[in-house]
Write a structure and sequence with these properties.
29% of the residues lie in helices and 18% in strands. The protein is α+β, with helices and mostly antiparallel strands and 77 residues long.
């Protein structure tokens, strides 16, 4: 499935301001349940050295990762 006009990677925005001098700004990523390889892929669209998330977004990412893992498990049965 493709989402029209959805670009992964850097957005060149800093919604909460830069964290420090290494902060490269907001990043759009995709989470995909890769059924062929039986893995959950996080696709960043660029190389990254770190990812910082506020608590709510960290919990959202964790929830989505569990959902994708559950999706893979359901396909096994």
């Amino acid at each position: 499935m493709k989402i029209k006009d959805f670009k992964l990677g850097a957005t060149e925005k800093f919604p909460r301001g830069p964290v420090d001098e290494t902060d490269e700004g907001e990043l759009r990523l995709a989470l995909v349940a890769d059924h062929q390889q039986a893995i959950v892929r996080l696709i960043f669209g660029k190389q990254i050295s770190w990812l910082g998330l506020p608590a709510r977004e960290a919990r959202d990412l964790a929830r989505i990762l569990v959902e994708k893992a559950d999706e893979l498990d359901r396909r096994k049965t």
